[in-house]
Amino acid sequence: MRGANVSDRRFPPLAIALGAAIFVLVPLGLSLADSGYFFRLAIVTLIFSILALSMQLITGVAGLLSLGHAAIYGVGAYTAAILSTRLGLGPLLTIPLSGLVSGLLGIALALPTMRLVSIYFAVATLGLGEMIYVTLLNWVSFTEGPLGIGNIPPLRPLGIDLSGPLATYLFVAVITAIAAVIVHRCTHSYYGNALRAVREDDQCADAMGLNVVRLKIEVFAIACFLAGIAGALWAHTTGYVNPGDFRFAESILILAMVVVGGLGSVPGAIIGAALLLLLPEALRAVGEVRILMVGVVMFLCILFLPRGLFGEVSALSLARRQLGAAWQQDRGVGWR
Amino acid sequence: MFDRFDIFFVQQLVNGFSVGLVYALVAIGFTLIFGVLNVVNFAHGEIYMIGAYAGLMALIFLAPPWVALLLIVLAAGIVAGVLLERAAFKPFRRFRDEASLKSKAMRESTLLSSLAVSIIVREATEKIFGADMRPIPRAYANALQEPILIGELAVASGQLVILGAAIVMFLTLQFILFRTQIGLSIRAVAANPLGAQYVGVNVDRTVIATFAIGSGMGAVAGILIGLYQGTIFPAMGFAPGVKAFVAMVMGGLNSIPGAVICAIFLGVSEAVATEFFAQGWADLVAYLFLVLTLIFFPTGLFGAGRERV
Amino acid sequence: MTTTRRTLLLAGAALPLAGAAVAQQRTVTLGYQLPLTGEFSQYGERFRNSAIMALDAFNRSGRIPAQVNIVFEDTRSDPREAVAVARKFVDNRDIVAVLGDFSSSAAIQAGRVYAEAGMPQLSQTASHPDYVKISPWQFRNITTQAYEGPHVARWMAANGVKRVAVVSIQNDWGQSVVSNFADAFKATGGEVVATQMYNPGNREFRAVLTDIARQRPDAIYIGMFYEDGAAFLQQRRQLNIRAPVYGTSSMYEPKLIELAGPGAEGMYLSTSFMAESPEAHVKAYVEEYKRRFNSEPNMFSAQAFDAVNIMLEAIARAWPDVTRQRVRDELARTKDFPGVTGATTFDPETREPAKTLARMRIQDGKFTLIQN
Lengths: 336, 309, 372
Description:
The structure holds three protein chains of three kinds. Chain A contains 15 helices and no strands. By secondary structure, chain A is an all-alpha fold. Chain A has a single domain (2-323), classed as Orthogonal Bundle (ABC transporter involved in vitamin B12 uptake, BtuC), CATH 1.10.3470. The termini of chain A are far apart. Chain B contains twelve helices and two strands; from the N terminus they run αααααββααααααα. Chain B starts with 6 loop residues before the first helix and ends in a 13-residue tail after the last helix. The longest helix of chain C has 21 residues, at 41-61. Chain C has two domains: 24-143 and 278-354, Rossmann fold (3-Layer(aba) Sandwich), CATH 3.40.50; 145-271, 3-Layer(aba) Sandwich (Rossmann fold), CATH 3.40.50.2300. Chain C has helices at 2-18, 41-61, 79-91, 104-117, 145-158, 172-187, 206-214, 226-238, 254-260, 280-293, 299-318, 324-332, and strands spanning 27-34, 67-74, 95-99, 121-123, 138-140, 163-169, 191-198, 219-223, 245-247, 268-271, 337-339, 342-346, 353-354, 358-363, 366-369. By secondary structure, chain C is an alpha/beta fold. The A-C interface holds A 35-37, 39-41, 44, 134, 137-138, 140, 145-148, 150, 238-240, 242, 244-245, 280-281, 284-285, 287-288, 290-291 and C 1-2, 5, 36-38, 41, 73-74, 76, 79-81, 83-85, 87-88, 90-91, 105, 108-109, 112-113, 117, 128-130, 134, 170-172, 174-175, 197, 199-200.
């Protein structure tokens, strides 16, 4: 009984459908269309899926609102760019190293800021993100500053040429799938339950014997590791990085993907990324009001589906469960 | 090192103080709205922008006297604020239980609904007026951009106007909050929305009133700063909006005086940092102060010590 | 937008039937990637206006027995979208050459796609030194700072400036403003007493100005776009700093004076385009632009106008064999093209344009030409 149930739960139909789409339908369709444009869109969507997945881990599961995620992603991209152009390392080394650098940076940033809660944490990450951006922009001798780093070699691990569109797509898709599995395992396990407990009520979780600060730092590090990998993939598939690609607006975009897709849901993150990246392209036909239309769609999405397209829990039931936990009259909410 | 502390350094303090006042003007309305709803209003920068454009249109087509101009802008801000509340915040209060105002998922939804509204407003403004800076009729621009020399120090007339506006706004807000009926209900809802409802406060009306007051002030800030800096363009609300947000959090979220003090501190630290680093790095100093503040004062400098928001 | 798209579709459908050899109903298609939404949309708007003007004139002239089309695609000057649009243009076999993008970073990221696919790209504004080094497929129609910097440095030296402070935006173009100018100015025996780079989006220059004022420079050289420049000039006046300001050609824009008011008075700048030029073709361009779009052309619109014309010229020379390769080769042969921004020649090796610069000063609220 146990075995059957577990395997049932391990492969929900939505995940299977998504997996089939990513590995079979999309590459098939793209190959038939033989369009570099659609391949490019698919690759960027996958890279942002990784970012949305990592954001999902921080915000959806652990309940920490991060506004500096794009900067972590940028550090990953710059690590890959610098390692491959100056030291000539191949992507098999630069991609994991970028993840590692971003992950370690994540730990370094998390250590002092983890005791901050909710909006204080959000603003601390905003500040750290801007600091990283300003550093990338102004440390000209190391990052080339606003000139950016060009001529980053495309994906050619171990001399195998993966720079063609289909090969690049599949390479990125495999990494995205691995990231999805990692996030899924972090979410749907006792570990994930512990994270949710921290999200719902960190003091209560603390009282239950969970090491809240350690959990938060761990999950932040994992998410930053994934963001760094996404950055490395962006650097290798685009060939040029510039500090302007990793600004605050990009962090907000990633957050919007997670919220539109549904907080706490793994397929939701991927679908949210696809929606917010492909919508502006699909709306090219409406001309210059397309970004306005994206705003409208985003607004309607949030208005009618406040729990997101594939939310783990509806906001309402989450609110109900928080009743009592979040309700503390003597906390002195309001001004003095 | 010490040769830095000359008249130019004093000038730098004046510069920083005036930048800080600009942030403070934006932060006042921002903090007021946050206090009541516990939600970041990402569209506050757009209200600020709407105020500037409404004022500019009034200047071009009506050329009203100053008092009338401010009243027009105030009205525009109030209307925009009430509409914003209707569109982006009201729908999320359909869940009337007390926890929904405080739940994480709800807050993030509302945060992004105001973000979506701000994208729509900004893009629409770009479509209507163009993305470039709007020139301001000379007669009005000159009034706020004239240099005034005090010994070796130089200030602009606009800086004095902004100082005055900040003082007036701050005092008006304190008066409204602590001396009027509506202020009482705003404070009640901010402290405890459910409790306020139990004792007969109309929460809906109070929230609308808060938006009206906060947005009216945001709009007036927009036109004054727009005229003084001569920079009126669709994305003008973004940079001061972020700094106001930072100032509010440094100040401890629920303290309007705290937000004002931190805004001025941010402005001064940016200007003084320019004395020692290249301007490009000066931004980093302001954010460094933010992070340090939060590390040593996890609930802000003037926070009420509430642990969870 | 929709009509271009539709004609494009029709042309695409007709092409396989007609075959390339039948020249009668052929359509030559160009791609133009530019920011039409977002914070840079004002520039994209100007580029599109100029491109439409150039295109209409070319199609009316009947120089080749075919219609030329331009497909405009919005990129917001965002590298993510720029690369996607580049892929889109490469996919479209009808497109023989591409114009744009606006910012260097978007142009470079798109340029890598074009280099790989073999598509000629001509940007009206990309000034990054590495841009033309991507591949032999990249061209630009902009006076690079490698020419403008030394020009201004010599001009200042001739005006007796010994100590100069440089303020510039922190982007790739700003970097080249500072380095090219500083080297040339030192060569004239002058001294650069302060260099300040400010982050894009910052329009509060009082701190920078105060810091500069302490060094008591004879002049300030500013490398920024006109909106930042207007704020800078205004704040300089408010702080009562008397040192004269020299600006880059990017500041040549009538709106600068409207925005900065009395603050702009007395500023020096060099430019390759002058709306008041007595030359007939410049006059015709300025008048038509004003009539059709109800606004004044500036440096950027003029650069786009010339870029499109240089491209069309290359197509006319390549006719009837209009392929991506032929258009590139003909672009590389551009010599003494008489544009509104002066005569343009592409260096066959580096593909860098050579241009001439005029000197101007803002006096009594007007840009006035200085006779040397």
